[in-house]
Amino acid sequence: MKQWKKESGGKAIGFLLSDVPEEMIHAAGFFPYAIVGGSTNLEEANAHLQSWACSNSRSALARALEGELDFLDGLIIPHTCDTMRMLLDLWEHLRPLPYMENFRLPRQVNRASAGQYLVGELERIKKGLEIYRGSPIEKGELQESIKLYNQNRLLLRRLTELHNHSPNLINSRQLYTVINAAMIMPREEVNRLLKLALEDLEQKPINESSAQYLPLLMSGTLLEPFEVLDYLEEFGGTVIADDFQNGYRYIEADVSTATDPLKALADRQLKRIPSAVFDIEQNPRRYFLTGLAKEKKAVGAIFLHLTFCEPENFDSYDNLKAMQDEGLPAIRIETQFGGAGLGQIRTRIHAFMEMVGGESR
Amino acid sequence: MSTKNIFKTAALMKEMMKNYHESGQKAKKEGRPVAWVTAVFPVELIYAAGLFPYYPENFGAVAAAKKIAHELSAAAEGKGYASDLCGYARCGIGDAFSEEHPVGRILEPDLLFCCNTQCGSLPKWFEVASRFYDAPYFLLDSPRVGLETDRLCIEYFIEQLKEMIKFIEKQTGQPFDYDRLTEVLSLSNEACRLWNEILDSAALKPAPFGFFDACFHMAPIVTLRGTREAVDYYRALKKEIDERIEKKITAIPKERHKIYFDHIPCWPKLRWFSELFASKGALVVASQYTHSWAYSFDLERPLESLAENYTHEFVNRCFDYRVRRKISFMKKYNVDGFVLFSNRSCKPSAFGLYAKSKLIREKTGRPGAVFEADMSDLRLFSEDQVLAKLEPFFEQLN
Ligand code: SF4
Ligand code: SF4
Fold first, then answer.
1. What confidence score (pLDDT) does residue A209 get?
2. C-alpha span between B95 and B361 (Å, rounded)
3. Rounded distance, CA A76 to CA A103, Å?
4. Which residue ranges in chain B fall short of pLDDT 50?
5. Nearest CB neighbour to A108, from listed B80, B82, B141
6. What is this model's ipTM?
7. Which of B90, B114, B139 to mutate to test the interface with A (most CBs of A within 10 A)?
8. What CATH number belongs to A7-126?
9. How many other CB atoms are found less than 10 A from the CB of residue A327?
């Protein structure tokens, strides 16, 4: 990142997950940089964030306070939950940046007012970026960025397909590592590398031994820690579908290039797969997840529950119940950024995999 | 609230709240829809539509005040709802799953309305309840507002008020009565005006009324705002306070200091706190919480003005706005120090308090303390820990 800045002289705008329209940051000529995880030195962050804040917010703030994010010129924090809503305030106060914004997503997505408002909010974000850059963002620029990101998502989805068919060619850990790396790399470069890799990988014959892996659905706010994926593989499993903000949710929805870009960005947002951070009557996410599990022939579901993640917790009971009602075994595992409790997580995954009939390898 | 010094109107309020709960039961029996609402919600529309508004947060507060929130909560926790969720939500969900109802059953909703200016916990809790009770749910969404007036947010809210009115019309089969809304709004204005005059009396030195009294007397402004009863009640209370001023009856025996407090009280420990502060000659005079109900509606522009008032409520505002507002209360009531409650239940009020506390100390030069506890759950309350923060604070006051 620092090297990119030196070479290009460009500016970097950080953002927290999820659902921030990176296309807009990119169209303004800035580098959109996702802040996920990291930092083991939590001391200063702990002085400001009480012990019952989730480790996602804590580790992000800790990175900023440690100076690890000093290369950022700006930051967009989406309003996904109360923790995020308060984090922006704290960040602004403790480490002010020249450009800081709160992306105020509508919490309801089903009524006409949500769409109208969201276009207005995107317009507001766009104006803010324009002021910071000192000139308007042209429609063509935004469309170009949308195309670039659509292509990126398409390539990452192709990679996901490949993983689903041949976990031997690209395993779960590799897949999610690539998705997460894409979030902090220049997208032009990511696309170039992905194309090369896919051309190579898609030539390879499907490996029969892939069938030995038991397909599992994984769900949660954020995929963390990645060791979970190693344990899964160790006990004979592979991820066949997920809805993580740093997983499938990040790549599933494209932006139409046929309509006005702001309208298209708003439409994409409102049509995204359901998530705990939006308040939708009847929690359609539980049926989305059971549907997905059935479609992909998953043998069970593992819910990763970031401790203190409030939106996720409110849905958790229903989600587990919906899986069980469908006869799909499901567990909830509490997780945290920073690698705490790995031993216990491994034990639980081991027990669960034995239950669904997996074999250690 | 000194125990010997109970307001005459307290009996009146008990009577009134009893009636309120009875009319809820009656509404249920008669098939008049019971509508769940949140505290900072344009309940004026609900009253105008002839629905019965019920406040599940209040149910949580009552369970908390009776010191049994943790018992109800256990039923929710048994289903996987974590002990770190808002205590009110845990009480409500706990009651739904529970066989036993130590505070009586929560009044089951026919419709649910939620406004998220306060927090993101309420909408998630109401969603859960709407599934559990199989009742339609309507969310009034308010984006966070910064320092300035936010037209985008107001316009969005107005659109949703219109959507909500259509939703109500569909549910009740009755056209919405705008004339009735104007009446309700004017009653709301009057109750808010009286309530704030009452709160202002805490600025007198010594004062006849303080924050702990306000916590006791605020039920009508929260639940009955928009009714004649609330107006009558606050008139009576105002009159009693004026008499007290004349007779020189004060809120605490020897008022030496005035304190600002944020923001919600610790319900199961209300008495303990009020006696602790009184024993130090410290009167808590203001908090954002009790001062929230300060609406002023323009009867000529009902929907616009509902949107302006409810979206721009302090709970929905940014860090700087809240700090400024706290400081302005501190100045208005001429306080000697401040105490901030880092409430485990309430992420949106607790996160950022340490930074706020530091800033307020710098800007006002007044001593302050932050203590950690929970507004409802005694398992998360330690007298020793609270005293460890408050004792040094009281010393600094002297
Ligand atoms: S959605 Fe959950 S994980 Fe994300 S910031 Fe909020 S509480 Fe933390
Ligand atoms: S206490 Fe806080 S989290 Fe709980 S309902 Fe009230 S505002 Fe929401």
1. 64
2. 42
3. 7
4. 1-3
5. B141
6. 0.96
7. B139
8. 3.40.50.11890
9. 7
